[in-house]
What we know:
Elements: H1 9-21, H2 30-34, H3 38-43, E1 48-53, H4 63-70, E2 73-76, H5 82-85, H6 95-107, E3 111-118, H7 131-148, E4 153-160, H8 177-183, H9 187-197, E5 202-207, H10 215-233, E6 240-243, E7 246-248, H11 255-267, E8 271-280, H12 288-306, E9 312-317, H13 326-329, H14 355-365
Parallel strand pairs: 1-2, 1-9, 2-3, 3-4, 4-5, 5-6, 6-8, 7-8, 8-9
Bound molecules: ligand G3I.
Amino acid sequence: MLDNAAITRRQLLVATSMVCAGGATSAQSLAGGAAQSLGKLAGRSSRLFGFAIHPEVAQKDPVRELVRQHGSVITAENAMKWRNVENAAGMADYTQADRVAAIANGLGVPLRGHTLAWHQSTPGYLTSATSAEFIRAQTGHAQAMTQRYKGRIHTWDVLNEVIDGEAPGGSGLRDSVLSKLWGTTRYPALFELARTSDPKAKLAYNDYGMEQDNPWCERRRTAVLRMLESWVRAGTPVDVMGLQAHLDLSRPFSAPVLLKFFDELRALGLRIQITELDARDSAVPGDIATRDAAVASLYRDFTQACFSHPAVEMMVMWNVTDGDSWINRWTQGQRRSDGQPMRPLLFDAQGQKKPAFVAVANAMRDASVQFEGYG
Ligand code: G3I
């Protein structure tokens, strides 16, 4: 991905000018935004804000307190994935998933279910399954999860990451254990199963790499729109496009491009949830203040765009602090050339608010467009 190789000149200039001029996201203005609960600010425009959590981490401060103070929705980072629930055939263990559901219940906030079907969370025991065996097992798992948490899930990520904008032959669909053993033409059947099993849950298709302005994202947007359009035309019960939004400071961002995509999703009758937000700063050189200003600038532009669109319902961060971010735990992932950990979230490793927090708080506070609800 050539376009991802380096931070754009514009982003660096914006970041540098914010640091120098004490812009809207500088440390100076941190105090003003610091007292605010992001969940409450999002609520002003009838939206939700929250975090993906790991049950262990969520029981210790600072994560516990930040989730309590700012979260109005939570997602299980891993605990509800198939591989985490059922490691061996017929040996389902819901302990961790139940713990996340109990945390949501204790906080009195809605829970997103993540995720019923994902090639990466298929249990190892199914790698050499026949298609019939796989279909039986995947159906059983989706039934079990939707029944166990029936009435308690705001939105289920029914299907995760089946798009591949570079797929040979231009199918736009990822080649995976799911496409091979479940079958791409049977993807809508998962939504039908979920709707029948838990009729109150909203049903989402969830994927990454569609939020920024480069050819790779453009191909992925085209592919997902084609897939969703065919499902909607066939009457598939899909309500939501979940945009993961693992942003990357090396890619350009364009609000008009994102808003056009939002309009196209809305024209299909879908609502939009930002489901896994963070911002990788591996391409931003410099000291922490410069890096944090660049990250804040992207968060500001992104949040302003999202909160200006009536179809956007919620924004969920993927983890809570830079210290618990999956990006710094991901052994095969990108690394900074200076060896420093990345600073992708709104709170630093000590749980202190960063300029990105103020950028998001201000964008939420200034939002003039309400979430329109489900038609
Ligand atoms: O908990 C074990 C630990 O005991 C063990 O020592 C260690 C050794 O590798 O692994 C630990 O488990 C890891 C787990 O994350 C907890 O950190 C798993 O190996 C690792 O595979 C797992 O990765 C998760 C990944 O999905 C795969 O399920 C990440 O935490 C999680 O953030 C990531 O989330 C995905 C979304 O579900 C879908 N979108 C992309 C997003 C980021 O990749």
